[in-house]
Amino acid sequence: MSRISSLEVQLSNVKSLLRTMCDAVNTGLVTLIQHFEHPNPNRLIKIVVLDSEIDNLERAIDTSILQILATQQPLGYELRLAYACAKIAHHIERIGDAVESLARQLVNGDIPDQKEIFLEMLNDSKDLFERSYTAMFEGDLSLIQEIHLLDDKVDFKQRELYHIAKKILKKESKGNIDKALRIISMSAKIEKIADLCCNWAEQIDLAENGMVRRKIQKRKYRLVFMDNVGGIIASIAASFLYQSVKDIVDLSVVASQPIKTNNILNFTNLLSEYEITPQIFPIARITSMNWNKSLMLIILGDFELPKEELEVVPYKTVQIIWNEINFEPDEIETNPKKFKEFVNSLLIRTNHLAQIIARTQEQNE
């Protein structure tokens, strides 16, 4: 009967397997980028072979981690590391699957006309991959502290490609439909690679720092307030909610019309009576919004989200309509009675919403 290796040796073996797995996936990513720069379908074939190797490595890692848990009963850092490696191996395997799927699509068709945008997405995703790789195997955790901000660049490019695909679909021919669906499919796979690299970084952070001292702040979900009056009413509504939910979710404001001359700071004295401090939120145009991570859309008054935007809002995003929050900013500013009615309605709505968000946070924890 062979002697059981020490915990340190077993963990080192797991990390070695994981590094080999990551190297194989990185080779696939580099090959995809090279194909976009200098098309050569023959080089894509090796990605399919690499995917089988990646799957085998994931199974070997799972077996090794199971042996560690069964024979060593690790605690503290060692337990976190073993758990993180199992999760990371799964994320890397899924990245490998996405890379292989992209390779198959490229082997069976030409490179899309939007080559430069795809290349930017791939290079940004490779940057995310390399940051997580370096943090994992060289211990430089500074590279992953703001990794979610870098991931937003990939999300923005995916949205750009989606709108391009929609324009192509309007031409209504079989060739255009296939072209548009290909753009949507390929961009979604690259965006998934970027997301999985962020998941990888979070597991590294968890292993190194534990739950209490984590350095990476998980990207918070967003509440999006929308109105038809230049974002002023939406900004006031968001200000009512800000203090109670700012640590749980991000708040965004969207307007459908050009920004008016009104400024939320004009309402400082009126709001101070209710112990509300006006918050200055950047007011976004609908067409510039990235709806990823939007937990709720709060629609004020008679605002309507255009159909083409509804199509890109994630299906899990909740839409809440507050029809009664529908006043002209000038009217509120000059009519105290109207403003009081507005505040009373808003207090009821925002207090209820804050309770829902707090309960959701408790369930997630």
From TrEMBL:
Domain PhoU: residue ranges: 18-105, 119-204
Lineage top rank: taxon: Bacteria
GO BP terms: intracellular phosphate ion homeostasis; negative regulation of phosphate metabolic process
InterPro entries from the UniProt entry: PhoU, PhoU-like_sf, PhoU_dom
Cited Gene3D superfamilies: Phosphate transport system protein phou homolog 2, domain 2
Pfam families noted in UniProt: PhoU
Signal sequence, start to end: none
The family this protein is said to belong to: Belongs to the PhoU family.
Alphabetical list of PANTHER family matching this protein: PHOSPHATE-SPECIFIC TRANSPORT SYSTEM ACCESSORY PROTEIN PHOU
Entry protein name: PhoU domain-containing protein
Species whose genome carries this gene: Silvanigrella paludirubra
